[in-house]
Backbone:
C-alpha cells in the first residue's frame, strides 16, 4: 500500500491539472469577449454606407458569423451575418443574434431584418 501512495499522488496531481485547464464558457472573460464583438459590430454597422463593396465591408467588419449566397432574378445575392445582439446563453452564435448585411452583385444594398425579410 505504501508503494502505491506516491503513484496515486502523482496521478491525482495530473488529473487536477486537467480539471483546472478546462474552461466552462461562462467566465467573465468569455462574456466580455462576445460583448466586445457585439459592441464593435454595432459601431461598424452604424458607419456602413449603401453602395459599399463586399470587399470594403469585410475589410471593415472581418469574418462574418454566417454567410449565405444565392441567385435571385438573375442576380447574385450574398448575405453576411454579424453578431450584434445577445439572445441565448448557450455559448453559440445563432442567426437571431446577428444583423444581416445584404449584397446584390457584390454591392451593399441594405442591412437589418426588414431588407432581409424582403429577399
Residues:
Amino acid at each position: 500500500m505504501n508503494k502505491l501512495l506516491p503513484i496515486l499522488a502523482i496521478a491525482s496531481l495530473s488529473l487536477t491539472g486537467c480539471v483546472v485547464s478546462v474552461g466552462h464558457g461562462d467566465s467573465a472573460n468569455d462574456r466580455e469577449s462576445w460583448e466586445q464583438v457585439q459592441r464593435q459590430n454595432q459601431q461598424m454597422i452604424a458607419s456602413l454606407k449603401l453602395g459599399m463593396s463586399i470587399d470594403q465591408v469585410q475589410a471593415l467588419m472581418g469574418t462574418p458569423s454566417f454567410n449565405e449566397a444565392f441567385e435571385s432574378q438573375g442576380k447574385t445575392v450574398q448575405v453576411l451575418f454579424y453578431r450584434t445582439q445577445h439572445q441565448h446563453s448557450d455559448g453559440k452564435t445563432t442567426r437571431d443574434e446577428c444583423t444581416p448585411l445584404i449584397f446584390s452583385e457584390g454591392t451593399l444594398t441594405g442591412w437589418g431584418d426588414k431588407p432581409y425579410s424582403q429577399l
